[in-house]
Design goal:
The chain has 247 residues and is of the alpha/beta class. It contains seven helices and seven strands; from the N terminus they run E-H-E-E-H-E-H-E-H-E-H-H-H-E. The protein is 41% helix and 14% strand. The protein has a seven-stranded parallel sheet, sandwiched between helices.
Length: 247
Amino acid sequence: MNPFSLEGRSVLVTGSSQGIGAAIAHGLGQCGARVLRHGLQAMAEADYLQADLLPEGSAPALIDAAFEREASLDTLVCNAGSFFDAPFLELSAAQWEKTQALNLRAPLFLTQAFARRRIALGGGGSVVIVASTNGFQAEADSVAYDSSKGGLVMMIRSLAVSLAPHGIRVNGIAPGLIRTPLTATWMESRADDLLRHYEKKILLGRVGKPEDCAGAVAFLCSAAASYLTGEIITIDGGLTTCQIGQP
């Protein structure tokens, strides 16, 4: 049996209607998994679940809906998240709470609901949480977002401790600068200065694509990673490796 294959696996990928989540969902499907996708917008597709993860109680409701579609669901990828920041002196309580609700609270209670269902089925399974290099390195005007992603870094490790006795592995990825619908706007407007600065600092010389994240997630979900838990793979082209970058 190919340990890198996901044949026979059932996966829910949150926030997978576009960007990194869409690329992850597609990549897992290419590896043989049955994939349920999720997003905020309505889509009339059999493998798609619509849900707003901001309200309390929405995370377990989404997990219940996913298990109704796939009774043997054994893998969860928590990717849904966004950026709602303002400069720190202008940051409102509402912006802070919205960021933590989507980026931090939702993955926690998605994982809790998923783990409860898996334990009821006898245990086992895998969770992958999408954090960010912002969880390790701060960025200007990004206090709420940075804090949420830093929380995810520790949450991944803490959940790995809590769920290991049940045979559920919890790992994460930390993407760096990836071109997505969320980042494309400023990249296009700052192509001649800020984007060029980043391209020089990234050791591989280019901004990442959503597809660059899919392989690491597929590996973490597979049997090839069966002895990994509590780990976070940084996917940033070397952005956080070198202080100065390329000349």
